[in-house]
Design goal:
36% helix; six-stranded parallel β-sheet; 17 strands; 399 residues
Length: 399
């Protein structure tokens, strides 16, 4: 079902509630990565330039106790948003009440305000995270229209997405441009991919990717598996895995996935090993059939990178989620870099990174502009790849 996009709404003169994903990493009150703020700018600018009034809001981390309020204060984000937009952003240090209501009432066309971290409402009974009906109704009362541009929380039914949508009025909810892109690319890759569709899955745990693997076994033409999760599969095949990370309770599951796969799952053929989890200790490359008992695998090896690159030749749609090794350590980043390069250099292919660590890797390695789409949602993109319906997407008005 096609969803309404912000361009389907008449925003002129309207108070537009906008759920953005400004859950950015911060250190000592300073933003260390502003990609999510930058990604939301096109939607915000569209509403402002078309005479709408923007009431922007986001969560920032988890708020479990009063001590979290200071470090989860979203004011620095509002200040940076103002700089990026080149216009004032009125910041309201509240999530409800008279100060917020007055500030909204005083907004003129083309102006923007941002209110405090929505998760501040979790301090008293998790009202945001548990989609408190009264809170969703209250926030909806502050605006005329609702634009949801926060794909990163689309897999959660919170008051700030599903709650507002349920109370804003029929047909008054739309996706922002970022949300539209996520639906188009990730939804399209799962539901109607141009073939061959190849999925590359990495990361530490099979358990994190069970649903994705099961769904992609039906949807994809091949699944290339790297990262520490490969060792659980090797254990299922009866190989020695040394001190490598293995989910012992998932070995039987890995065995059944390999049987179901009928040759679709491609596993690494070599690995970079080391006696300890350290970037400074001596390391070497061995075949996956020759991992010593006292060493652990921390990356895929060069022969695997070549194998995966060969498997990618001719692919029309590629979805990548999860690094190939411990990419934060330079000695174990080569597998992730190699696979990233192989995907980035594909011609005439739709290439998608499903958020999380693989997105961070591609951006930090300078490959961001080489991919068709880099998802802003880790958990949300994983659940979308599993074929699950996302509450935040489902609550957007249909065209």
């Amino acid at each position: 079902m096609a969803k309404k996009i912000v361009t389907d709404l008449n925003v002129t003169g309207k108070k537009v509630l906008m759920r953005v994903d400004f859950n950015v990493p911060m250190k000592d009150g300073k933003i260390t990565d502003e990609n999510r703020i930058v990604a939301a700018l096109p939607t915000i600018k569209y509403v402002l330039e078309n005479g709408g009034k923007v009431i922007a809001f986001s969560h920032l981390g988890k708020v479990k106790e009063a001590a979290d309020l200071e470090k989860r204060n979203i004011a620095p984000v509002a200040a940076r948003l103002s700089e990026l937009l080149g216009q004032p952003v009125t910041f309201v240090n509240a999530t409800r009440g008279e100060e917020l209501e007055k500030a909204v009432a005083n907004l003129k066309d083309g102006e923007i305000l941002m209110f405090q971290n929505t998760r501040f409402e979790d301090l008293d009974g998790k009202k945001e995270s548990k989609n408190d009906p009264e809170l969703g109704k209250y926030w909806a009362s502050l605006g005329d229209l609702f634009v949801n541009d926060a794909f990163g929380t689309a897999h959660r039914a919170h008051a700030s997405n599903v709650g507002i949508a349920a109370n804003i009025g029929e047909g008054n909810t739309a996706a922002g441009f970022l949300m539209e892109k996520e639906i188009k690319f990730i939804g399209g890759a799962v539901d109607a991919p141009e073939r061959p569709l190849i999925a590359i899955l990495g990361g530490a745990k099979v358990s994190d990717k069970i649903g994705v693997i099961e769904n992609l076994l039906v949807k994809a033409d091949k699944i290339l598996i790297g990262g520490a999760m490969m060792f659980t599969f090797f254990k299922a095949l009866g190989k020695n895995t040394g001190k490598s990370l293995v989910e012992e309770d998932k070995v039987e599951l890995a065995k059944s996935l390999l049987e179901k796969a009928n040759g679709k799952i491609i596993l690494p053929i070599d690995t970079v090993i080391c006696k300890e989890f350290s970037n400074d200790a001596p390391h070497s490359v061995v075949s996956v059939d020759e991992i010593p008992a006292d060493e652990m695998g921390l990356d895929v090896g060069p022969a695997t990178v070549k194998l995966f690159a060969d498997q990618l030749v001719g692919a029309k749609t590629v979805v990548w989620n999860g690094p190939m090794g411990v990419f934060e350590m330079s000695n174990y980043a080569k597998g992730t870099i190699g696979v990233c390069e192989a995907i980035a250099n594909l011609e005439n292919a739709t290439t998608i990174i499903g958020g999380g660590d693989s997105a961070a890797a591609a951006i930090s390695l300078g490959f961001a502009d080489k991919f068709s789409h880099i998802s802003t949602g880790g958990g949300a993109s994983l659940e979308y790849l599993e074929g699950k319906k996302l509450p935040g997407v489902e609550s957007i008005s249909n065209k």
